[in-house]
Amino acid sequence: MSKKNIALFASGAGSNAQKIIDHFRHHAFVSVGLIVCNKPDAGVTKIAATEGIELLLIDKAELQSSSFPSLLQEKGIDFIILAGFLLKIPASLVEAYPRRIINIHPALLPKYGGKGMYGHFVHEAVINAGEKESGITIHYVDEQYDHGATIFQATCAVLPADTPDLLAQKVHLLEHQHFATVIEELIAGK
Ligand code: GAR
């Protein structure tokens, strides 16, 4: 199998991006070739510098431009991994990378997804609704927020004493435990 090159898209601290980079360091058939970020001061930009991975800072207009998919293709990107990326992926990119864009969402979709549902907003909504369970969803990306086919879910309990911060910590643990291996299995099966 020829080596597959992934781009990590992230808008925040980048703890998932870091785990994925660590997992695929010296890997047989996957490498992380690019980090794409829309927030110049996001933690993930420092990870790119420390790891020596090319960083592409973009804004919404660049993401939506018709030349963006070919820019990624020219850079040899085979798969796009959204690791806390908060801009909507345009249809042009979905069409250029069919079933090759993967997102992680910090809840059990189809509940608690959609526009504005990210980070602590998700955990607040889960707790306010009195849910007994939350977790993570790894799914293919389509033109709608948090909507494409589910690849993997893992759950954790929501306890009466849980705050949004505590729940976020549990969910992050699940993300760090599973995201990279799910990506690896998915790429191995293509
Ligand atoms: C993760 O919990 C991810 O599930 C979430 O952003 C966080 C990024 O954390 N994504 C969304 O909410 C997308 N709707 P990180 O920057 O530490 O990896």
UniProtKB/TrEMBL annotation:
Enzyme class: transferase
SUPFAM superfamilies, A to Z: Formyltransferase
Gene3D superfamilies: Formyl transferase, N-terminal domain (3.40.50.170)
UniProt-annotated site: Raises pKa of active site His, residues: 146
Keyword Metal-binding on entry: no
Domain Formyl transferase N-terminal intervals: 4-183
Taxonomy, superkingdom: Bacteria
The protein's annotated pathway: Purine metabolism; IMP biosynthesis via de novo pathway; N(2)-formyl-N(1)-(5-phospho-D-ribosyl)glycinamide from N(1)-(5-phospho-D-ribosyl)glycinamide (10-formyl THF route): step 1/1
Annotated N(1)-(5-phospho-beta-D-ribosyl)glycinamide binding sites: 14-16
Binding site for (6R)-10-formyltetrahydrofolate: 103
One of the GO biological process terms: 'de novo' IMP biosynthetic process
Entry annotation: catalytic residues: 105 (proton donor)
Pfam families registered for this protein in UniProt: Formyl_trans_N (PF00551)
Keyword match Transferase: yes
GO (cellular component) term, any one: cytosol
Keywords, comma-separated and alphabetical: Purine biosynthesis, Transferase
The EC number(s) this enzyme carries: 2.1.2.2
Catalytic activity reported: N(1)-(5-phospho-beta-D-ribosyl)glycinamide + (6R)-10-formyltetrahydrofolate = N(2)-formyl-N(1)-(5-phospho-beta-D-ribosyl)glycinamide + (6S)-5,6,7,8-tetrahydrofolate + H(+)
One example GO MF annotation: phosphoribosylglycinamide formyltransferase activity
Reported function: Catalyzes the transfer of a formyl group from 10-formyltetrahydrofolate to 5-phospho-ribosyl-glycinamide (GAR), producing 5-phospho-ribosyl-N-formylglycinamide (FGAR) and tetrahydrofolate.
Family the entry assigns: Belongs to the GART family.
Listed name of the protein: Phosphoribosylglycinamide formyltransferase
Organism expressing this protein natively: Niabella soli DSM 19437
